[in-house]
Structure formats: structure tokens, C-alpha cells
Amino acid sequence: MLVIRTANRDVPLKAYVQAWKQVLAESSEVEYSEGLTGYWSVSRDEVLSQFRAGLHDRINRHIPGYGVGRKWDSDWQRCIANVARQLNTPRLIIHWLPKELKERFAHRLWEGE
Predict the structure, then answer these.
(1) In this predicted model, what pLDDT tens digit does every residue of 25-51 receive, in sequence order?
(2) What distance separates the 2 farthest-apart alpha carbons in the chain?
(3) How many angstroms separate the Cα of 38 from the Cα of each of 7, 9, 31, 60, 86?
(4) Confidence band, pLDDT 50/70/90 cuts, at residue 21
(5) Lower Cβ count inside 10 Å, N or C end of the chain?
(6) Which of 59, 32, 28, 60 is nearest to 45 (CA)?
(7) Residue 63 in 3-state DSSP?
(8) Distance CA 19, CA 60 (A)
(9) CA-CA distance, 4 to 57, in Å (whole number)?
(10) What CA–CA distance (Å, rounded) separates 16 from 52?
């Protein structure tokens, strides 16, 4: 039996496809009490977006090298988000950059003692 593995359970493929078709058949004004990724109310379009995101995620997980390497680490992702925020702040002198960005943004790095 084919199943779709979600974050907290396995769903038979037939039930998954039926749920997707049911959401597609609803009118666009429908509100669901909770979505696929949270416990808050969402619109029909948001549920369809969550279905598509899950589908794309399952497809991408079959790409060789997906999830491998230091750039997939949550610490690296947080660090780069901070660097992006700093780089997007005009006239801010930056004290540290990852090695991939040092040459490109050397004019923004602090050159103190």
C-alpha cells in the first residue's frame, strides 16, 4: 500500500488524493478550522498551497545531495539570515562575514585593532 508520510503520521495515498480533490472542489470562500501545518484557521487557497509545498518537498527529497552539507545546518541558516539583515542595513559596519561573502563585501567589514 502506498502512503504519504507526513510530519506526524502516514496517510494512504488514496485518502491523500481524495482530500486534495475535496479541497479543490470547495469554493474559494471556505475557511478550515486548521491547516496541514498548524492549528490555526486557514483559507482554501492556503490549504492548497500547503498541499503543493508538501508535494514539492517530497519531490525535492529525491534529488541527490538534498539535505547534505553544512549549509543545511540550522545554525548556518540562522547565521546567514543575520548577515543578510546586516548587509541590508545601510551604513552598518559589519564585524564578521562567512568566507563565501568576505571578498564580495570586504568594503563593509570592520578593520579595527
Answers:
(1) 988 888 888 888 888 889 999 989 988
(2) 66
(3) 11, 14, 14, 22, 31
(4) very high
(5) C
(6) 28
(7) coil
(8) 22
(9) 12
(10) 12
Q: Find out whether 30 and 44 touch, Cβ atoms under 8 Å.
A: yes
Reduced 3-state DSSP string for 17-40: HHHHHHHHHCCCCCEECCCCCCCC
C-alpha cell at 9: 503520521
Measured distance CA(44)–CA(20) in Å, rounded: 11
DSSP code for 92 = P
Query: Which residue reads 563565501 in cell numbers?
Result: 100
Cell numbers for 79, please give them: 547565521
Amino acid, single-letter form, for residue 97: L
Calpha distance 36→54 (Å, rounded):
9
